[in-house]
Amino acid sequence: MANSALLVMDVQQDIVDIVDDGSGYLPRLSKAIDGARAAGIPVIYVTIGLPPGDPEVSPRNRVITNAVRDGLFAEGDAGTEIHPDVAPRQGDGVVTKRRGSAFSGSDFDLVLRRRGIDSLVVTGLATSGVVLSTLCQAVDLDFGITVLVDACLDTDPELHRVLTERLFPRWGDVVTVEDWLQVIAPR
């Protein structure tokens, strides 16, 4: 675990308001973050932020175009802030991306390489959005993958289930927050 980082992706106020179903997501995520910090595992936050006004988004990108139309993701807006229940602390990394994947339009790869990170422990909103997009690229870049299944959430529970039970296990480990904490707990 020495070369791992915990990724907290798109856990921003507006996205939490849309995706969180009241299932205790934020307390579980907070527990994972606290566990990572206690174990000396870096925590890296990834957010989506677009320049205000008329961001460079092709109408072919339906997800981002619809979000912009709905007033989401504008840098500087209160809704793009990381949710206060899981806010970064001094020493945590924060990366702003411009598209779905953490690697798209950001310095994420550089941040990982600079820290010597070769394994990613993935959390985020939504499973079918940032989590899937980031994992696709991370697998191609030969990162080790662990997905914290109950620290990812989607507006479509069935899609979340299919991804976490059928696809993600082909790419890496899929475990609960509690099981992961047992593995990383300082002894």
Automatic annotation (TrEMBL):
MF annotations from Gene Ontology: hydrolase activity
Residue ranges of domain Isochorismatase-like in the record: 4-179
CDD domains in UniProt: cysteine_hydrolases (cd00431)
Domain of life, per lineage: Bacteria
Pfam families: Isochorismatase (PF00857)
Keywords of the record: Hydrolase
PANTHER family: ISOCHORISMATASE HYDROLASE, PEROXYUREIDOACRYLATE/UREIDOACRYLATE AMIDOHYDROLASE-RELATED
Protein name as annotated: Cysteine hydrolase
Species whose genome carries this gene: Streptomyces brevispora
